[in-house]
What does this fold into?
Amino acid sequence: MTNLQSTYLGLTLKHPLIAGASPLSHEIGGIRQLEDGGAAAIVLASLFEEQLSHEAAALDHFLTQGAESYQEAVTYFPEPDSFFSGPDEYLDHIRKAKAAVGVPVIASLNGASAGGWVTFAQSIEEAGADALELNIYYLPTDPMMTSQVVEQMYVDVVAAVAGRVGIPVAVKIGSQFSAPVNLAKRLVDAGARGLVLFNRFYQPDIDLEELEVKPHLVLSTSYDSRLLLRWIALMYGRIQADLAATGGVHTVEDALKMVMAGASAVQMASALLRQGRVNRCPRPR
Amino acid sequence: MKRPILTIDGNEAAAYVAHRTNEVCAIYPITPSSNMGEWADEWSAKGQKNIWGTVPTVVEMQSEGGASGAVHGALQTGALTTTFTASQGLLLMIPNMYKIAGELNSTVFHVSARTVATHALSIFGDHSDIMAVRATGYGLIASNGPQEVMDLALIAQAATLEARVPFVHFFDGFRTSHEVQKIEALTNEDMLAMLPDELISAHRARAMSPERPVLRGTAQNPDVFFQARETVNPYYLACPGIVQKAMDKFAGIVGRHYHLFDYVGAPDAEHVVVLMGSGAETAHETVEYLVDKGEKVGVVKVRLFRPFSVEHFIQALPATVRTISVLDRTKEPGAAGEPLYMDVVTALAEAQAGGFSPFATMPKVLGGRYGLSSKEFTPAQVKAVFDNARAGKSKNHFTVGIHEDVTHTSLPVDSGFTTEAPDVFRAMFYGLGSDGTVGANKNSIKIIGEETDNYAQGYFVYDSKKAGSVTVSHLRFGPRPIHSTYLVTQAQFIGCHQFVFLEKYDMLKNAAPGAVFLLNSPYGKDEVWDKLPRKVQEDLIAKKCRFYVIDAYEVAKATGMGVRINTIMQTCFFAISGVLPREEAIAQIKNAIKKTYGRKGDQIVQQNFAAVDQTLANLFEVPVPDRATSTIGIPDTVSPKAPEFVRNVLAEIIAGRGDELPTSAFPVDGSFPTATAQWEKRNIALEIPVWEDDLCIQCGKCVIVCPHASIRMKIYDPALVADAPATFKFVPAMGKEFAGKKFTIQVAPEDCTGCAVCVEVCPAKDKSNPKRKSLNMADQIPLREKERENYEFFLSIPDYDRTALKVDTVKGSQLLQPLFEYSGACAGCGETPYVKLLSQLFGDRAIIANATGCSSIYGGNLPTTPWTVNAEGRGPAWSNSLFEDNAEFGFGFRLTLDKHLEYATELLEKLREELSGPVVDALLSADQSTEAGIAAQRRRVAALKHALAAIPRPEAGRLAAIADALVKKSVWIVGGDGWAYDIGYGGLDHVLASGRNVNMLVLDTEVYSNTGGQMSKATPRGAVAKFASGGKPSAKKDLGLMAMAYGNVYVAKVAMGANDLQTVKAFVEAESYDGPSLIIAYSHCIAHGINMRKGFDQQKAAVQSGHWPIYRFDPRRAAEGKNPLQMDSKDPSISFEDYAYQETRYKMLAKSDPAAAKALLAAASQDARQRVEFYKQMAQMVYGGDGKPQG
It folds into this structure.
């Protein structure tokens, strides 16, 4: 049998194909299916700090809405002693995922505040994740904000997190930088052990009937992989970090090309979502 | 032994002991006792054990009748069992209470005593419910404050086990049940010591068991019943002694010593008052004050009212007593005196006759009533009672605390008399419910109570309006236990948390000289003085107040707190008052913040911390000048154009001066005029909708969804706009039938609550600027004046001729005048749009029975009512009987109407000759199926009455009195799911089965909304509610399906947000059906934990997900051979999760117990799928003769 072993973020993978962050890893059952289907590692869906903050504020607001106002209904809800607020649920998910599967489990984090990135990363490490993928994106809308400032924010996040956790840290970035290779180098210098290329975002759309902006995520196609093929090839050898391909790997051929270009790991998400059943994902022969 | 110090209210204190000393608790929510059951449920849900190490079982029943039955059963099988209730709830338990006592079961019912509804419902406190059960054989034991509630709850539990007499342990609703006090909590060891195992075992040994079977509940005959009934005598005779023994034992363990009758006062008192409950504490405080001044007065606090121990009572009185004033917190019309008075008279007479009276001469005994429905009972009133007793011509059977100017029973009260002690710190805070003032004050009491040696008391006056509700907090802190069971007077600190209150409430009325006045003001320290009303300036000067301001909203905004200003104002209070050293106070506030918000996330904690930290820099003292300069007056409470009764009576209540209204101001039988909410201009909206006439498609959706009837439309003759104000908007009316007319959408600026649901549902957008809709919210204040003028003009435009409208359409129905307007319901309420629709379609001929609940409160809570009349003076006749009997109550309406129609028909036949045959025939054969037909019949009846006046036969007069029955009436039976699914279901079912023409509207919020979110059988699986904190495990009861099973009931399930046209059609069809109709209306609710602005989106999602399939089941179709069931919703198009997880009631379980949430979500999704499939199959059933499905 051919040896397809690969090393990614210091983790030994039985082959380079890993499950990228997607809703498939929301449930432990899904994570098991991913392993059963052959995934060599599993990147969990991201923990979004902003969403957590928003949910906590919403929970507080709606649990107390109308309370202490009207004489017959001083409250409207029973209040449990504790909520799985903040990252508890996610951290618990990491623990359960680790217990459920043998392959490496890579957590993913999207922070919102400087403090949040570091504290959540530390908690994720404590929960037992084998590695951490930082899902950084920032939409600069301020005309006075320069690319240097934006890039420095990325670098600062990586430096802050990598300096405080022991597990390997990868960074997932978008493709739209003027000098991606230089940015990649700076991120690696700041402590990133791997780069995940590239992040795909919800894109805006307009509903012409309702006259509303409706963002939605379009799943990738094989064609999209051309973009990362270029940049992985360009970075390989120039950047001293593991490279993971993500965004457009749908077929055996797509995966092969990524490995040939220099990827240590090939993440799949859209293909798994589109195929529906993870055990039908293309297996390396 | 160190006992924990807690700062809790009376309800929690009762539940604290009850939960620890029982195994089974069967309850039903009712104000003000609901919290006791909720506490017990919460503790059991969290696994908290009783003193014997097992978690008590807490169950919510369908009514108090059911709860008492369950209690009886559990007692009979040997469980230590309790319940919590009040008022009507206690009355529903009476049959079982006779049984429980008759069988000598040991139990304690904890009752927060509340007024029993008579001429009106009242949720507040008095002893009318307690007095209604004094014949049941229960012992009645009274607590006067939260500490006593905890102590006597245990004493009663110990006594009942030994005495075998069951007890009602009661304390005053709200005044004690909701008063927060610092108390010393009992420990498990205390309780174990009071409740020896032998007594528990004896209780168990009396249980029913097949191992040692006995028969109970026999039927007995005249030969033996009487003597068998007398067998219990020894137990009742021994009972007072056992209670006293328990009190003595308790004193030995805990230190506080109670007696059956506790006397406070001069040992040589000549004048004594006797009373029980919280009022006894005010009497205690007053007596101590007067004795200090050298007066020979005293008070007897009655603790054990039943069994009444004559011997102990006589012993409690000093032999020097010359007058005894007995104060009853109840009224027994027609009795020789109120119950406690009667007992005292009897006791004295028996002592005299029995030769054990200590008095040289028989004291004069006077009876009086006080404090009904939580009427304030003050030291001044106590003094008035003593003054009356001393007077040469004392009033007997007096009242105190009101001005009873009809039969002149009331005593004069010196309102200037006060016993407020100089070393007690008193503070008052005026806030909005939504700004969190009460929550912060509860924290402040905890901080001061638990971190200092001070005793602390907090009492909170809430609102009966649910939108824009105002709260007033009354706080006292002092070095001695606080006996002041009355609202704060002479406050040293007054916090006004909303600037607009300056014009609405006389807050400085209660300011002590030199008091601090803290104002949350949008105006800075240099300009605020000039923005104060003149009266406020004058009061600040006259009382030499110190005046502080802070722009709390600005601080809140800067720290991400939104509109929550509570911690900011709390910080100000501590900083200014100096109750605690500033640094320590801030540390304690932060500690409290952590406790309150910590479990919901660190971010909220940090925001609150930031708010605290930024407060002091923004708090300023404003020098008070020595002269008032303001020209700002206090506006009239109501318009001078209001009717006399509104101006003289209702306006006084609105202004907070209801206490000063005399008896003669009120109707004798509880009848009030309708059409009064229009005068109560509340101006609570920060923003109101503004109509962009160029975009409007005139669909009427904004009008139909408005919960407060504060956005309306009219179509009218163009000539009318000639007199319109300059800013009044109008456009040509759309639609062929309205050709040549004008159209206007108008907002009632002062009645709108700013909920914005109209904007949400508005479908018309500006194609060149999609952010601009035909309705957009804008600041109210700049619009108020001109929109007020526009609205007044709009109201003067005649309504469209209703006989010419297609009323079964959205637009047609919304051109009808709403006869339900400006209610006190929550902003964005999901119920009131249906109620308003009912009023539009049928209000001019409707007679409405309204179950107790939200709809009876926003419909009938004084001061004003939203039910109104049309230009002819017709409108809904509305009444609330009870919670449990509403279907039967409305059914009674129908019986009268049918009977009178029958009788009128008979009389018409008798008068056929005098009236002429064609007139009689026209009246009897009138087609009243349309608006035009009804209008024609009204004209015939008017002519008939005229003709009858000239006929000199007795039948003519008899017919005239009931002739209105000849015009079609529309009987509506309205209530919530608590009524329809639970407490009133038996009646609802019976009325449906009767076949009579009544219409039932179930406003289904899927939870008890009015009492604060308890589970009902309408609650869906997986939703969290009180008594279902782990998510309701069973599926929602399918009331519609049960009603359809009768075959002859019109049933519709509707959700206005999903299909407003279907809703309108269902109402019209239901009403037109000559038989029972049931409409089940999805009503989103604040108790769902949703953004109320999006309530109609949630209705739509409920339907789309299959949770709430909408349909109409019309028996008339079956008669035509068609399937009566028509599905009006399509197959589910979104998942149940997509609907449910937009609501906190479902989502919170995912946050507290994700595994359970997942399982329940799956089951609830399955419920939805099955329900839809089931209905689809029903709708496919063959009703015709040819075996083919019929459309």
